[in-house]
Amino acid sequence: xxxxxxxxxxxxxxxxxxxxxxxxxxxxxxxxxxxxxxxxxxxxxxxxxxxxxxxxxxxxxxxxxxxxxxxxxxxxxxxxxxxxxxxxxxxxxxxxxxxxxxxxxxxxxxxxxxxxxxxxxxxxxxxxxxxxxxxxxxxxxxxxxxxxxxxxxxxxxxxxxxxxxxxxxxxxxxxxxxxxxxxxxxxxxxxxxxxxxxxxxxxxxxxxxxxxxxxxxxxxxxxxxxxxxxxxxxxxxxxxxxxxxxxxxxxxxxxxxxxxxxxxxxxxxxxxxxxxxxxxxxxxxxxxxxxxxxxxxxxxxxxxxxxxxxxxxxxxxxxxxxxxxxxxxx
Amino acid sequence: xxxxxxxxxxxxxxxxxxxxxxxxxxxxxxxxxxxxxxxxxxxxxxxxxxxxxxxxxxxxxxxxxxxxxxxxxxxxxxxxxxxxxxxxxxxxxxxxxxxxxxxxxxxxxxxxxxxxxxxxxxxxxxxxxxxxxxxxxxxxxxxxxxxxxxxxxxxxxxxxxxxxxxxxxxxxxxxxxxxxxxxxxxxxxxxxxxxxxxxxxxxxxxxxxxxxxxxxxxxxxxxxxxxxxxxxxxxxxxxxxxxxxxxxx
Lengths: 330, 249
Known about the structure:
The complex is a heterodimer of chains A (about 325) and B (about 250).
Chain A (H helix, E strand, L loop, with lengths): L3 H12 L8 E9 L3 E8 L4 E8 L7 H15 L8 E6 L5 E6 L4 E2 H4 L5 H20 L2 E2 L8 E3 L5 E3 L6 E5 H4 L21 E3 L18 H4 L8 H16 L6 H10 L11 H12 L11 H11 L1 H22 L1
Antiparallel strand pairs in A: 1-2, 2-3, 3-5, 4-5, 6-8, 7-10, 8-9, 10-11
Helix pairs in contact in A: 4-7, 4-9, 7-8, 8-9
Chain B lengths: L18 H4 L5 H26 L4 H18 L12 H19 L16 H11 L7 H27 L3 H13 L9 H8 L3 H25 L4 H11 L6
């Protein structure tokens, strides 16, 4: 006979990972998701807090385990201030795979964005772009970019999280020795200075839809795995930009940047995240943006706004000079 | 690898295979044993659901419970389950609702299994549980049925854990588990690991290890039983996440 309280307790303890043989000690549950649970744990060897992500169920060679391992490996190779570092990976005595990563303090972007002023939101967005561009340069497409997957730290630092459905692309240099990919990916031609990438064999079956509605590019929503590339993330970044600008009056050039990032056809989008970030930087610097053809008057208005102080100084000088001439001419 | 291996006694255990799948087996013995296993797991939630949610009198609930499972065997109800359409527990509850409605309409309750026990089911024990947990009528039909199913599942798992601990000569392991994890949540003050260690004359570190081992074994048993009681891998994963507190992905 199990009471309600005992039942709740048993459900809880049966779900707790068995950390025997590891240096970790669980402190509390941070969050739960489809793949597994994230715990706040204490690393007794290094005497520091870590976040421990543990797969929900043991399943040797199963898709969830494979994804967890892939996520850990992807994070391990992406050393960037905007991407959470992985410390350790392993299998628990009960067969569940886990990995330990840096404990991230802060709040989710969707929780903090609305309270921040628009320029601050745009700066956060630029940092997200930097992390994603870095991942792209290392052949990794996130595929599930959304405000809930971005953490903002107490000092404004931005971390892109949840790389569990990321797609890895094999570097061109290695591709010769890589077995033929199941679904060759037609990718945007990249600048000659960067390696070209193609999909590795460990990816998603055609027709599989991974991602979050509202933040999935059309080709991703249709399950066209072979068409997913950097521009798929560009689309999601456009959606995040739209989210960040919700509730505020959006200037036309900025709206044009969002629209171009979210174009239905990948060919009509920015070719990569750097191009998107560069256009946004031009907007923030008061320069014309590539996504928007402004009229003569708009150009004048932008010029005046950008150079307001020197223009006012010149105007003040001219008025003073005119007044002086008038006074001398009397 | 075959689905079921012969036991020394000649019977085929239905290990590593869903009981639901086995309930449609060509071998009548396998089918019968799968049915018995499903009855063992489900009769308690079914009975409590009838008593609490349908507000059926005790005697009628006993008859309806027996009749429901007899009819399930006779009509091959479990074989008709399609994992693609619903979870097994939802399917079972829907069948049960139809069964009650039909039986009441046709007033055939006493003809079919009425008063005739098909299995020795501890209805008295189930009544005590209902009395102890209250009516819980604030829960919806699905939630109540699910909660009682989870309770039955953990009840069977705890019994299995007790048996395994005894068979492997580790009665202290189960005694610690019983005191800390089963009785502890309802006790005015849960015993500390140090107190348990003193009671059993073992180091406190051993208490930690024994409890961890018992919980690990419990989790394993729960998952084994759940695999038996679900119709597909997807349903198993979804139910496991639900039961173990993880949101389905």
